Amino acid sequence: MALLQIVEWDRELDTNDIFAWRYVDRKNPEKSDALGNWTQLIVNESQEAILFKDGQALDLFGPGRYSLSTENIPLLRGLLNLPTGGESPFKAHVWFINKVNVLDVKWGTQTPILLRDPEYKIALPVRAYGQFGIRVSESRKFLVKLAGNRAQVTRDDLVNSFRGLILSRMGDMIASYIAHKKITIFEISAYLRDMSDEAMGEIRPIFEEYGIEPVNFFFGSINVPDDDESVRDLKRAMSERARMELKGYTYQQERSFDVLESASKNTGEGGAMMGMGVGLGSGMGLGSAIGQMASQMGQYINPNLNPNPNLNQPATAASTAAPEPPAQPSSTQPQQSPAATPNFCSACGTKLSSGMRFCPTCGKAI
Questions:
Q1: Which residue, among 363, 334, 336, has the nearest Cα to 348 in the 3D structure?
Q2: What are residue 53's DSSP bridge partners?
Q3: What is the total count of domains within the chain?
């Protein structure tokens, strides 16, 4: 092999997707770990390189250009006991660690979390998703704990490695806000920023244990699937409640109004339906107002209901006839003319005043 072998990051690799990559010689892949003295190691900005021998992380190199002689790799020299300045090749893998900030790592629940809404007492399937940003802070710890037998560590590898921990912590947080803080699922969007800040404190120790520093963490959305039957039923009920609150009455009152409206359209059973309406109105807490309204409607629906408590029977021809004229006055008193208007309406029994041409209650001509 050439004495001046160049070992550097493959420029075709996407730095937004690859966090760590084990060097591979494209010309001679099977000789990628056969490094000789005076091999040139080039480490770019925002990168670090580590030599691995027999699974052990040895010397760490920051940005710059290095000649891999036993002079500048003391850990490897101690391990191999090579003479300084020799040309003997040695076996070692070179790992490059990408230390740029990667800010758009996506996370999300694979299946909805079933949670009980504190206001409506209904179990709803809750979904959540968002993104976070990270950077590798300790290259040695990162590779030892996450690289394993992989040839590279990608964004997907990290998400798959931490998905269970992230979703467990985020699920507990969402449940805490809904169950303990009594925040309904339809109002929780107002707390996304607070939850994002709290999530940073939750995930920081998890990532730092693997040599990763979290840069940020965001909740993009917490919602429920629109195609779920329980969600559709709840939204219909909420819409109906909002409509009734806008009109100023409750569901029980609306049902009472429906009964009274049905009764007003059924003149054949007016009395019975009005009694039902009054009973329902009283039972639902509508009080005397519904009862009075029903009573008044019943008078027009059933003309046999006499508003005059002193008249228990329908008026007859005899009872509605004009009263007998008074006895003839004495010759010393002036004679009075008989009354021109009967005392009571023959249709409804309403007491009439002198001079009336129509009944003020039922409108019958006198």
A1: 363
A2: 56
A3: 4
Residue 44, token pair as written in the block: 């770019």
User: Are 289 and 171 contained in the same domain?
Assistant: no
The three-point CA angle 148-14-19 to 5° equals: 30
Please report, to the nearest 10 degrees, the dihedral formed by the alpha carbons of residues 7, 12, 15, 16 taken in order. Answer: -160
The continuous run of DSSP H or E covering 168 comes out as helix 155-175
State residue 132's pLDDT score: 95
pLDDT in tens, 121-140: 888 899 999 999 999 999 99
**CA distance linking residue 157 with residue 153, whole number of Å:** 6
Residues 85 and 184 occupy one common structural domain: no
Residue range 34-53, pLDDT digits in tens: 777 678 899 999 999 998 88
Residue 332 has pLDDT above 50, yes or no: no
What is the layout of strands, in order, in the sheet containing 64-68? 6-7, 39-43, 64-68
Give dist(CA 289, CA 260) in Å, integer.
13
CA distance 178 to 237: 20
> What 3-state class would DSSP assign to 144?
helix
pTM of the model: 0.59
pLDDT for 318 equals 41
- Angle (CA) 192 194 196, round 5°: 65
Do 221 and 119 lie in one domain? The reply is yes
